[in-house]
Automatic annotation (TrEMBL):
Species: Exaiptasia diaphana
Protein name: UDP-glucuronic acid decarboxylase 1
Domain NAD(P)-binding: 106-400
Lineage of the organism: Eukaryota, Metazoa, Cnidaria, Anthozoa, Hexacorallia
Pfam families associated with the record: GDP_Man_Dehyd
Cofactor section: NAD(+)
């Protein structure tokens, strides 16, 4: 105070008053600050406040976000799960093969029904598999579970155009296989089987690969011999509605043996009999798919003609085993691969009706043109040279196929995009 008093003595009166007011203000401020329960500096106080405010905004935002997302919450969690799965995509386990045992294998038509199961088997055995397919009747979804695997490659390719890749084995399956599919564009069917097979044989010749042709029991036509063995030459109408396929496969076989004789290409020819299983086309008009679809939808099961015509069906895993055994055997003549367990079409209708359940009736409709009356493979050659015979019972295969059809039907109903 003595300092203040001495200073006062030297300044003017107005200034004195001003300074006094100033001093009092500071004193009051200091007093207020000390009385406050928050004796922290102003800068720290505002930081704390900011944090609080930020927290409150965040909580608020999350609440708002949750509210906004409520209606699609379910989908969001699905999406999240998918993203998690995508990050660590898991493949079916594949065997490790040493380089000398590991083969580079091309499967034409590998996105189709049979081809996709063959892809599964060869991938799991540890080989490097390339699938070439134009998706005419195949689906990417059939091999979707291998996309991204280091041993797998998928090429969108039409085999009517040449394909140049390095491979050790070619499973040549590309061709529409069911009547509505191959009759849809008969010229394309002929081109695929003739020009496509020539292209694949040319590739096999260039890279010294072995080629297996997926031929068909249709090369026997409407057979006069029963059961059919490989020495039977067949009974085919060259100008009938099925000719584009039957004759296409016959000329494909002819070309295989021409290349074998003239160019020393190693060929294998599998004459495949009717096959069924998961991933077969649901609406391709073939007996098994027709009956299962009709039964699942409680529609009448339609039998063409009297239903006394016979068929023998093999389950797809049996076929795949047979194809792999044939490819790796040293037997180069045609080999029937099929199940000799013969049933009438009417019996099939009853078996499927029973397995599905439901009350749909079985009805007879008009007979189809060139519909073979009997079809049953003689598989003694496959047994003798490959040690192969089918092992999956009809009812077991039917049940597995019904499960697949149910899932697919459910999917298409859910998406409501497909009217089946
Ligand atoms: N499924 C059977 O009952 C059966 C019976 C006898 C023979 N086969 C033969 O087995 C093979 C496979 O039959 P599937 O039942 O799997 O039929 P599928 O229709 O499911 O498969 C054929 C595949 O070949 C593809 N393809 C067709 N034309 C092509 C082209 N020009 N270029 C590239 N790809 C093409 C299709 O997109 C499809 O993925 C066929 O050669 C068929 O003739 C099948
Ligand atoms: C300190 O002040 C805050 C708000 O400014 C108040 O919530 C709190 O009760 C006070 N504490 C004391 C001990 O006065
Ligand atoms: C095929 O292989 C078997 C044994 O795997 C052998 O006995 C047979 O002689 C071979 N045939 C030909 C034509 O090479
Ligand atoms: C097939 O499914 C039916 C109906 O679900 C069942 O009764 C039958 O035992 C099954 N058969 C086989 C061989 O699994």
């Amino acid at each position: 105070m003595t300092i203040s008093v001495s200073v006062f003595a030297f300044v003017q009166r107005r200034v004195k008053v001003f300074l006094l007011v100033f001093l009092i203000t500071i004193l009051v401020a200091c007093w207020a600050l000390t009385r406050s329960n928050e004796s922290v500096p102003v800068t720290r106080l505002s930081k704390k406040l900011m944090q609080e405010i930020q927290q409150k905004i965040e909580v608020h935002n999350v609440e708002m976000f949750k509210q906004a997302l409520k209606p699609i919450n379910l989908k969001l969690s699905e999406l999240e799960r998918n993203f998690q799965d995508y990050g660590k995509k898991r493949f079916l386990p594949v065997k490790y093969l040493a380089e000398k045992d590991r083969k580079r294998i091309l499967i034409t038509g590998g996105a189709g029904f049979v081809g996709s199961h063959l892809t599964d088997a060869l991938m799991m055995a540890g080989h490097e598999v390339t699938v070439a397919d134009n998706y005419f009747t195949g689906r990417k979804q059939n091999v979707e579970h291998w996309i991204g695997h280091e041993n797998f490659e998928l090429i969108n390719h039409d085999i009517v155009e040449p394909l140049l890749i390095e491979v050790d084995q070619i499973y040549h399956l590309a061709s529409p296989a069911s009547p509505p599919n191959y009759m849809y564009n008969p010229i394309k069917t002929i081109k695929t089987n003739a020009i496509g097979t020539l292209n694949m044989l040319g590739l096999a010749k260039r890279v010294h690969a072995r080629l297996l042709l997926a031929s068909t029991s249709e090369v026997y036509g409407d057979p006069e011999q029963h059961p059919q063995n490989e020495d039977y030459w067949g009974h085919v109408n060259p100008i009938g509605p099925r000719a584009c396929y039957d004759e296409g496969k016959r000329v494909a076989e002819t070309m295989c043996y021409a290349y074998a004789k003239q160019e020393h290409v190693e060929v294998r020819v599998a004459r495949i009999f009717n096959t069924f299983g998961p991933r077969m086309h649901m609406s391709d008009g073939r007996v098994v798919s027709n009956f299962i679809m009709q039964a699942l939808q409680d529609k009448p099961l339609t039998v063409y003609g009297s239903g006394t015509q016979t068929r023998s069906f093999q389950y797809v895993s049996d076929l795949v085993n047979g194809l792999i055994l044939l490819m790796n055997s040293n037997y180069s003549k045609p080999v029937n691969i099929g199940n000799p367990d013969e049933h009438t079409i009417m019996q099939f209708a009853q078996i499927i009706k029973k397995a599905v359940g439901g009350k749909a009736p079985i009805v007879n409709v008009k007979k189809m043109e060139d519909d073979p009356q009997r079809r049953k493979p003689d598989i003694s050659r496959a047994l003798k040279y490959l040690g192969w015979k089918p092992s999956v019972a009809l009812e077991v295969g039917i049940n597995r196929t019904i499960e697949y059809f149910k899932r697919e039907l459910h999917k298409s109903k859910k998406s409501k995009l497909v009217d089946l």
